[in-house]
Structure formats: C-alpha cells, structure tokens
Amino acid sequence: MEKYPNKMTVCDVSVHYGDKRALGGVSLDIPENQIIALIGASGCGKSTFLRCLNRMNDEISGCRVAGEILLDEQNIYAQNVDPVLMRARVGMVFQKPNPFPKSIFDNIAFGPRIHEITQSEAELKDIVHSALERVGMIDEVKNRLGDSAIGLSSGQQQRICIARAVAIAPEGVLMDEPCSALDPIATAKIEGLIEALAADYTIVIVTHSMQQAARISQRSAFFHLGELIEVDGTSKIFTSPNDPRTENYITGRFG
Amino acid sequence: METKISPRYTDMITRSLKRRHRKETCLRFFGLTSILFGLAFLVILLGNIANNGLSALLQTYVELEVTVPDSALLDAEGKVSEEVAFDTNWDGLVKKGLRAKFPDASGMRERRALDQLVSANAGFDFKTRILHNPELLNQPLTVWFKTSDEVDQYVKGNMNVSVDESQRRLSDQQLAWIDELAASGLLERRFNTSFFTQADSREPESAGILGAAMGSAMAILVMLVLTLPLAVMSAIYLEYFAKPGRVTDFIEVNINNLAAVPSIVFGLLGLAVFLNFFQMPRSAPLVGGMVLSLMTLPTIIIASRAAIRAVPSSIRDAALGLGASNMQAALDHVLPMAMPGVLTGTIIGVAQALGESAPLLMIGMVAFIVDVPTTVTDPATVMPVQIFIWSNSAERAFYEKASLAILFLVLFLIVMNLTAVLLRRHFERHH
Predict the structure, then answer these.
(1) In total, how many domains does chain A have?
(2) Which of A113, A189, B320, B395 has the greatest number of beta carbons closer than 10 A?
C-alpha cells in the first residue's frame, strides 16, 4: 500500500442526526487514485459517512459532524473552509441518476460555468467533449448534445452524471450506490468506467453488491450499526476477514 | 383441502364485488350530479347577466338635420379656434335640429321635455366631431345623435309604460314623439363604441368601462411587479436558507394567518401607511396595486413554497454536489422547475386581486372619474368598483351597463388566466 499516499484521512468522525447517533468514531485512510468500497447493511451509516467526505451533510438540518477529515492534510471541517469549494474538489454521484432537466450539453457545462473555469465558449465545448469521451459516451450523443438529458436511458443518464462530475476535474469522486437503479449491462459499463476513472481520481463507492465491491475496489470498509468494523485490502476482506461480523455479512448470514 | 376452500372465497369476493360496484356507481352518480349542478348554476348566472347586459352593446341614436354656422368654430381671421368653439352653444344647435322635427312643440315646458330626448352630452360629442372635421361647416348635415338613456331604455323595451304617467321617467307626450321618430325611421340602434373607449360619466349613454379597465390593468401590473419577486424570494429563503427554529416557525404561522385576513383590513393598512404616512396620491392605481400586493403576497408565497418543495431534492443535491452554492442551485435549477407551480399560485392571486373591491374603497379608488388614466398615479377606479358604482345608480340604463361590465370583467379574467396557462405550458415544455 505504500506506493499510494493517502488522499484523505478520517480521524474519529461521529455524526448525529439530532439526538440520534448515526455514526461513531470512524477512522479511515483513503489512498489516492484507488477505489475504496464501503459495504454494509442498509442504515449502517455508510451513506452518511460518504456524505461527510464532501460536506453534503451540511444541507441536512440537525446533522452534526464531529472529528476531523483531512483532504491533503487540510481539515475540511475547519472554520475557514468553504463547503462549496470542498464539493468542487470532491464530486458526488448519486444512487438515482439525477440529470438536470436540461440539454446534455448544459448538464455537463453546468459545473464549468458556475466555477467560471473557461474563458470562451470553444473551451467549454472542449471540456464537455472530453468529459463525454471520458465516460465513453461521445459517439452515442455527439450529434444530439442539445437534446434533453431526461430522454436518455437510465444507464446513459448515470454516465452523464459521472461526466458532469468529472467535467470540473475534481480530486475525488464519491459514489452512492451508482448502479443500484441500473440493469446488469448498464452496471457493467459503469463499473468499467469507474475502474478507468481510478487512474485520475480517488474514488469512494458505496455498494450493496459484494460482487461489485470485489470486482472493482482495491480496499473495502465494512460498516455495521454506525461503526466501522474493519477496513483492509478487498481480497483480504473477502477471503479472510478479521472480524466474525464481517464474515457473517459477506457470506450472507445477515444483513 | 385447498381446492375446497378456494371456491368459497370466490363466492364471497363475488358477492362483495357486487356491493363495491354498487357503491362505486353511486359515488360516480353523486360526483356527476354535483358537477352538473354547478355547471347549471354557472350557466344560469352568466345567462342572466348576459341577458341583462348584452343590450348595452347597442345604443339608440336619433337622426337630426343640423347646420353649423362658420361663427361656431372660426375666429375673426377665419381660423379654427377652440376658444370660439368653447363659447358656442352646441347643445342649442342639436336642440334646434330636434325642434325642427317637431315644430308644434311650444311653450317652455313642452320644449324642455322635447330637449330631454337627446343625450345631455350630444352637444359636446358634436363639438368634438366638428372640431376634427371643420370642412363640415356651413352646410346642412344629417347627423346621428345619441338619445338620452330614458329613450334608449324605452326603445329597448326596458320601460314599463303601462303605469301612470307620473310614475315613469317619460311623459305621454314624450312617448308620442319617440314613436313618431321611430315610425319615420329616424331612430336606430347602433353599436355603442363609446362603452369601450370612455371612462365613467353621469349620463349612462356616455359611460364607458375603459377607465376602470385601465385602472384594473395598472393596479394588477403594479401588484405583479411587486409581488412576484418578493413572493418567490421569500419562498426560496424559507425553504432553503431559513434555519429551523422559533423565528422561522413564527414567520410561517404569520404568513398562513395573513392569507386569511379579510381584505378590507389590508385597505385600512394601505390608508394608514401609504396615504396618511407616506402621503402617496389618493385613488391611484399605484397605491391600489401596492394594497393588492400586500393582500396576495401570502397566497403566492404559500403556493410558491409548495411548488419549490415539490421539486425532487435530487436536483438540488446534484447541483450542490457539483459545488454550486445554495443560491445557484435554487435559481438555476429548482426555480425553473417550480415555475409552473409558482405561476398557478400567481393566477389564483391575480384572480383574487382582480375581483377585489373592498380594500380599494379604503384608498379612494371609488371616486367618480371621467378621464381614462394614463399613468399609475392618475386617479382611477377598478372594474369591480365601477360595477358597484353603476349598480348603485338610479337609472335603469346603468343597471344594464353594470351587467355588461360584469361580462367584460369575466372576459378580462379569462384572458389573464389563459395567458398564465400558456406561460405555464411554456415553462413545463422547457423543463
């Protein structure tokens, strides 16, 4: 693992929704340019944890986050950090494909536009094209960039969402069960895409599919009842986990 | 065993199905009946109003022969002069034309009774016409003049002539003259254009709706310009920025309460604040619009909040996840998707404001105004108030005008709603 420096370091993070503790004392290293999978039963806190990593939890009223999350040595929950900048540096892809009800072009151009990354319309076009190339969709949609993204299939929509996230060249991409609403063929495409993206981005993915975690991730973290039980190389987790609860979950005895 | 049980269940389900179907038929019947009932009332109401009001579209005119001498319009140098025209007795010219038809009428009383057959504004209308066409001077003209409203009502059959002479507004002598004029083809019913081009008047035959319609349109415009941005911004703030807590709850409760406050209270507020404190002009559509905007603000805020809440949160998440600020997420994505709902709320608000008269009475928009307003600070009245004023008048002709004004108001409403519906369609198509 030494050849991958840590992109993010999580130190003793707890999350409360009002009085209810959703997550307690999680510490975890997220290595750069690797895929780390978060697994665990529904309601175990993995999505909550994921949303902490780019401060999306700020938008949920009554949600409090304690502890430290370092992105390149900087605590993202420090007073002087702007959550908007954090979200630009660490993008997010959601469970249900959620393209804006606008054209394909406008969907992908939204990020570069609001961050005023480009100087000219030609530059913006380049960014949109390379983002679509990145997700392998350029041939499918290059002649209908003006069409509404809502008309695409859900697999295509999800890839548009990924293209939208990478168009602003974030350092990390968080994915919350990106394939759970898709059919196996679309899933396979997205999995291939995620593996290819790992060359440039640090990826954290929440998944309910053991096979998916095994297929694409280098490291896996098992969450259970709001706690991080175990984190290790994916092959280690799936073949000889240290904790019996991890083994039970992986072998399907509960969860 | 299972094969024995299943046919028994089927029987029971079949029996219950019959009952359920009967209930459903019953419900459907009641639903249909209430809709038909409502429709019938609407038809009766509109039919009745149309029946009363449509005759106001026509106005009775009388044909008279008049010659206007040069001296009525031209000054000493032979130029058209408004001052000379102002001094001329135009009413006298018209009356002369009428007396020429009935040379027998003699004596002060009889002549005055004869004079009453033409509109009191006939001379004024005639002056305006000749001023614009000075080439008509000094030649015998055949001119159609408006008759007075009593003659108009009699010709339209709206006057009960079977009662004693002292009980009606036209004497037997006058009726005889009218019948004579009608028999010789000198009376004609023509389209009453002045109803759509003039403001209020003491004489029903000259009274028009344009002044009130302009007043209404200006007040609604002011209301929209003030309310829409305020309401949308308040709704966005309350939905996305306000921290939940006592203060926010307090604001929410009060907005809901304000929506239920009787409209006249907003009129009193406008009187106290806008007129008395800020010394704004009385009877002005500007102030009317401000009062109406106070009144409709809660309604539109509530509707806008509901529309914003109905936008899936995934859209906002998507924008925030890309590093959009809260404001960018709200304005770029949520608001366009909420726009159809916001517009629906606005339609309701506008319809409410358009039919409102009570708060406007408080700020003086109930005045008698004969000029069509041209700016928002000109004194004006609005259509519901105009209807109220006319239906309060004694003349039968005003009653007819009030009915026509109601039809016009309904038409106005339909046009505005249609515009809003088309706008909403437009937004729905693009998002």
Answers:
(1) 1
(2) B320
- CB-count exposure of residue A157 (10 Å: 0-12, 13-18, 19+): buried
Identify from B322, B331, B335 which residue to disrupt to test chain A contact, counting A C-beta atoms within 10 A and taking the largest count.
B322
CATH number assigned to the domain comprising residue A143? 3.40.50.300
**What is the rounded distance in angstroms from the CA atom of residue B255 to the CA atom of residue A87?**
35
Same domain, B252 and B340: yes
Which chain A residues are Cβ-neighbours of B317 within 8 angstroms?
Answer: 56, 59, 92, 94, 98
User: Does residue B199 fall inside a structural domain?
Assistant: no
DSSP B165: G
φ/ψ of residue B31, rounded to 5: -60, -50
For A221, the domain range is: 6-250
Q: How many CB atoms lie within 10 A of CB A126?
A: 13
* pLDDT value of position A1: 43
Answer yes or no: is A255 within a domain. Answer: no
Domain boundary among B190, B221, B247: B190
The predicted-structure confidence for A191-230, as pLDDT tens digits, reads as follows: 999 999 998 999 999 998 888 999 999 999 999 988 999 9
B318: containing domain: 210-430
Q: Are residues B179 and B264 in the same domain?
A: no
Which one, of B76, B209, B64, B86, lies nearest residue B141 by Cα? B64
Q: How are strands ordered across the β-sheet holding B187-191?
A: B140-146, B58-67, B187-191
Is the ipTM beyond the 0.85 threshold?
A: yes
Query: Looking at beta carbons, which residues of chain B come within 8 Å of A168?
Result: 322-323
